[in-house]
Every structure is written in C-alpha cells, then in structure tokens.
Request: fold
Amino acid sequence: MRYLELVKPPRQAQAYNSVSLHWRRYHSTDIENLKKQSDSTESDNSVLATGVIDKESNEVLLYYSFAGSQNLARQYLSRLVSPKITSDNLRKRVEKVSSPLPKDASITELVPLPRDSGAFVKFKYPPLVAAKDFLNEIRSNVIEYDNKRLDNIFKRVFNYVWNKSPQVYTVKGVPWIEDLKRFPSAKLGITYEGNPLTEEELYVLFRRYGLIDDIKVSANGGGGAAASYVFFHNVRSATCAKHCITGMELNHGETTIHIQYVPVKKTNFLVKMIMDHTKIALPIILALLATFAVLIFDPIRERFIQYKITHSGHILDQYRDSRLFKLFYVPYKKLTDAVSSSYDYIDNQLHEVAGVKVKNSGDDYDDTSDDGNSTSTMQERKLESNMLWQERFEKSKQLKLWIKENIDTFIIVKGPPGSGKEEFVFDHTLASDAKLKKRVLFLDCDEFSKARSENSLIGHVASQLGYFPVFTWTNTISQFVDLGVQGLTGQKSGLSESKETQLKNMFGLTTQAIRHITDTDYQRYVQSVEKRNRKLKDDEKIEVLKQEEFLTQFPESKPIIVINKFSRRADISSNDFIYPLIADWASGLIQNNIAHVIFSTADVGSLQHLTDALPNQVFKTISLSDASIASSKQYICDALKLNDTVALDRCIAPLGGRMLDLQAFIRRIKSGEHPPQAIEEMVTQAAELITTVFLQGHKFHNDDTVWNPSQVWLIMKLLSKSDAISYDSLVKSPLFKKSQQTLDTLTALEKYDLISLERDKGVLDKISTGRPLFKAAFENIVSDVRIWKLYETEYLTNLIAIEVAKLTKFENELTSIYKIGKINGKIDGRIDYLSRKIEGSNKNIEAYEKEIKEIASFNVERKHNSFLGIF
Reply:
C-alpha cells in the first residue's frame, strides 16, 4: 500500500525519502504560506490570533490529552472557562508527567485546549539528541508517571471508568486550533487534497489513537464533502487523532488530509415508535401520565383532606405540646408580640396627640351612633346566641342525642332564611361538645351555586374540601390536547374531563380520606385492646369489636359533615348538578357508616334530592322557627341598652322574631332613626320588593315555574287578614287547582321566602307568611288604593278569562251533543248539566264585570296601614 510504503519504505527508496523529507523541512505548506502572507501586515501573529503553531527545525510539537471530552457543560462554556486555566498551571502539569527531561530540553510554547481537556506543547530538544529518541523518552516518562499514580486497585478501577490517564502523541500534520462551536464527537469526517486513502490505510493511520468501531469510505468525495468517516469508540481518541493528523501530507506530498468532527445522529427508538404509531402510543402515554399523576398527587390530596377534617385550627396546633416546638416557637412568639405591642403603643401615642382614639388589635370594634349608644358586633352575636340558646336548648340536645345514638345519622335542619341554622349547628351544638367539634367538615353550597365558571366551581369545592393541590389551569390545556389527539388518532384521549366527572373524583377522594380517618381510629382501638389483653388472663381478656360495631359504639370516631344552604336549584343553571351530586355522596357516607351528615336548608323543595338519594331512609328533621316576641324584645333592648319596652312593643310586632330583620331594625335605630320611622321604612322596602319581584311576573330561573301575579295577589289578600290559610280553602279558587302545577308554584314562592308551607304527615296543610315583616308589607300593599285597583282588576280579569274558557269548552261540547242527539235522542241529562254550567259561568262573569266597574269608580286617597296609624 502507498501509505505503508511511506511509513516503512524499502531500502532502495530510503535515499529518495530522506531527500523528500529534507526538502519539505525547508519548504512551507499552503497554510504556512497563507499565514506568512497575512503576518506581513499584522502585529499579533500568535497562535491565538491565527490558529497555527510555528515550529523551528530543532523543535517538536506534541499533543497532551489529560481526560475525555464528554462533559457538555465544559464544551459549551469553554470560552468562559479558558481564562481560568492558566498556562503556568498547565506547564507545571506537563513538566510533572514528562520529567525528567533531557539536559538542555525545554518547553518553548504551550497552547491549552480547555474544551478538549488537552494542550499543544512545543519542545526544543538538544542538537545532539535525535528527535525520535527524544519523543520516545517523553512517552516513557508519561507511562512511568501513570503507573506510579495507579498504585492500587481502586485507583485503577476509577481510572478505567473515567479515563483520566495522561496521553501524549506526536503532531504529524498542521494543527488547526479553532474555537468554533464544533464540539468533539467520536465520528471524524475526512476530506482529501489529492488521492483518497483506502480503509486499510485509514485503519493503520488512526488505530494508534484508540479503538475504532467502524470505517466508511465514500466513492464520491470532494467538493468540500467528507470522503471518508472514522468511528472511534470514544471521544477522547477522536480528539487526539483530529489534532495530530489533520493537515498531514502522505504519498510523497500527493495527498493531504483534513479532519473535522461530525455530529453523531443517534436514533431515539422511543420517539421513533411514538411518531410511527401515534394511535397506539399517545393513548398509552396519556394513560401513564394520568396514572403517574394519581399515584403522586392523590395521596397528598387525601392527606390535606384529612387535615381539613381533623384540624380546624392552625396547622401548628398539633405540634404545640412538642418540646422541640416550644423551644423554637415560644421565643419567636414573644418576640413578635413585643414588636406588635410596641407598634400599637407608638400608634396610640401618635393618635392621642392628634386627638383620635384607636382601638387595639384585640379590642372589639366600636360602632358609635349619633345618640351616643355604642355596642360591638361581638356583643351582638353573644346576645343573639344567648337569646336563641334559651329557646333552642332542647332542640340542640335532640341533635346531639341523634349523633350519639349513631343510628342512620342523616339529619336535616330546616328553617327560613335568617333563622340562624348555621349558628345553631356550630355554636349551640357542635362547639359545646369537646368530642364532636374535633372532626367537622363544613360545605357551603351557596358558593358552589354562584360559581360562574368551571375553574371557579372547582376551586371553591377544592377549597372547602381541603383538596390540594388542584390544577384548574390544566382543564384548558387538556381540552386542546384532547382536540389535537382526536385530530391525529380520530378518537378522544380521555384527558379532558367534564366538571361533573372532576367533582365526582374530588368527592370520591374525600370519601377515601374519611374512611382512612375511621380506619385509623379503629386500628388505635385494636392496638389498645391488644396491649391491655397482654396484661390480663385468658378469662379476663376483652373481646375486640369488629369495625362496624366499633363505629356504632364510638360515634365520635366518625367525622361530621355539615352541608349548609342546601337547595333545590343553583343560581347558575349549569351548576344544578351539584346538589344531586352532594346528596348521592352524603348518602354513600351514611350507607357505609363512616360519617354523620347534617343538612341545613331553607328550601323545602331540596328534600326531593335527598329522597332520591336515600329512598328508603326516614330523615331526622329539626325545624327552626323565628324567635318569640319576648326574646326579640329583650334582644333589642339589650342591644340598644333600653329599659323601657313599651315604646317598642308596637314596632317589634311587625318584625316578629326573624333575626335578620331585628338586626336591621337595630342598625337603623343606631343610625339616628326613630322607631316608628325605622319600621315604616322597612315595611315600605319590603312592599317594594314584593311588588317588583312577585307581582310583576319576575323570573328567577329559566327552569322555575313562573307564577301568575294574580295568584300572588290572592295569597297576599288572604294572608293580610289572617296569620295562615289552609291549602284546601286556597284550591277552591279558580286560580288554583289540586294539581302538581299548583304545588310547584307554591314551592317556588316558598323558595324565595314569600310564603311558608306547613305539612302534616308529609301532606301540605297550611300556608303562612314567609317572613313576619311580609305580613305588614302585605297589608301595606293591599291598603294602597292605587295598587289595589291595578291588581284587583287584573285578578278579576283573570277570573273572567277562566270562566270564558269554561264557556267555550261547554259550548263546544254542547254543539257536539246536538249533532249526536239527532241519532240517539237520549242525552237530555248531559244537556241540562251543561246548560246549568253555562248559566253559572255567565253569572260569575257578570259579577266580575260589575266588580271591575265598581273598582274603576272607586277613587280615594291612599290609606295608611292600620298598624302604622298609631304613629
């Protein structure tokens, strides 16, 4: 082979080779000629500026490699790292591994290559020493140094893994020292000037630098494209070969090789499989991601839900008895209290100078009215609780008894809005029992009902359940992903879930958390019994109860779920599904005997959801009514600090015992209004509310029954004269019938607190005013002649329309009978019946029309309501 002839020339060619080598020693290559031409006009001709190392006749250029070049960070940051690697440090290292050098030998130039973990070193050797002998001595010194360094088996193993042994090679070509973003790789691309080399020649040329995996020779080399490729086993070998061989002339100057790194394109079989089999890979990946998310986040969420149920206070409360906690927290608390109190002192001093009194952080808020009376919100709540507590003490005892009896504790607390149902359950019942108040989960359905977006609904539910972390932003992303997967595969990925499904999953995880709480208590009980039995004799041992029996005997082990403001329908129609969902979830807790459930509702229609969820369950119900007149009077007097109640007796009567109205009355008095003026304004506002909402056919909900204003007017007239009316007497009116439509209308009016329905054994019995204040408002509206004339005329007009519809129906039937009568001739009884009905409807129409004429002629000034005339 040509290259082999150059490396090991035969004897007859030695003279020619010696002359050729001698000629090339004193003649420059193309790169050197170009460098000399550019150097003529430049002042800086160093290797850093040109990338070429000059070499004299008695100098040799070696390449030292100290480590591999597989550190990507070192490669990309080489320009920043290179200033930190000084030539002095690198020179000392080269001298250390190469010592001892021959006498008069020295390093004349050193070019570090931080990116490649190596350096070019130019030596000047003594004139009496041959270059080959000098190079062999340096190689021997490097090998001997490495052998001394690896003096035990551990260092050898470490060196084998990390390849840290120093290596030195002779630079045979013209190295190109560049700092381009061409990072080392194990693949070298070779281009030729002249005749290309064969695989055998390339192997002989490159094998000394390391193990070669493959060699590829291209038949169409040239034009700047690589003609051959050499695949080394590691990057370090490729780096050494590139630096030592590039620019080398072979075959008597006929061939010059140039070497560059070629990035190795590795095939990612996982990515290839995904791209080639999208319909199979994407569903699998999404399923794995969903499984991973469940395995990671669901245990975390379950733990937060448990904490929400079992620790209603501060997160550090469970650690307050720990000595380690006291060691760090107590000094911190004292320091913060000292700083806080000092700030309060400074603020008070400044405001006292200005003549303004500032309340401290722990004081109650002072609400001072114009007449000098002042009370606090906390005091009002305390008074309210005390007054209601006296009247509802027995009901609170009953609620506690039902929980401790632990038999199907599915309890409903119902009452009109503002009757204090939430305070009754929490403050009067649960908070007063040390065991029951430890495990309470409170859900306010009003927030769910008013959520206007899917993310808002999920956020509210998660917040009240303690479901954390929750990623509401993933809903939007999952919809786009689902759409993209459907476009690629033709089927949905299932990643995007409806809000119903998401809430079901959240409540399902809450059920698991509740079950985990009960299981933990049962395990503690079992361990306690077993520990005690170890100390007892066989005949004295205590029998371990089964979990179901344990939960029956220890009701405090089961959490109490309080669902407040449960309703039949939501304010936002798209959220209507939440109430049946909560009812089904609560029924599951009761059936599994893992929780007590208390529903608080002002909407009797919502009980239908509970009936559907537990059709065979008899609910335990507590009805809260308004406070008595005596309690209401005492509450107002205590709040206003009055001793004389005679002046307030006639004002309190229209308010009844509804706490919201009592508080509104107290605020008006504090603002400076006199009692008669305050009650008159409240009645007027209630009358305007009723007229606007109920008498003008307002529609609360798209699915609600739209009541007829004439129906509301009739109920108002009847309730303005009596406290309650019977359902049987109401359905005698032509506007009401004993039908489901009438029941739906009355239920809708009850939902919005206009009326209150009383049932006897589940059957509708009586109808009363929804709020005590509304009775006075009814009287106010009915006594207003202008309003009375308008709606009384409309009421009679509707009655006439009903009678006209009856007449039309009877007349049509009578016409049909006359046609049939010509054939049979025996239908006189039916004709007489229809004739009487037609005559009766005519009389009713005449009576209604007469009343309408009388109403139109009635024209007097507006009358005041009777109870207001006393003022």
About this structure: Confidence is low (pLDDT under 50) at residues 1-28, 343-385, 861-871.
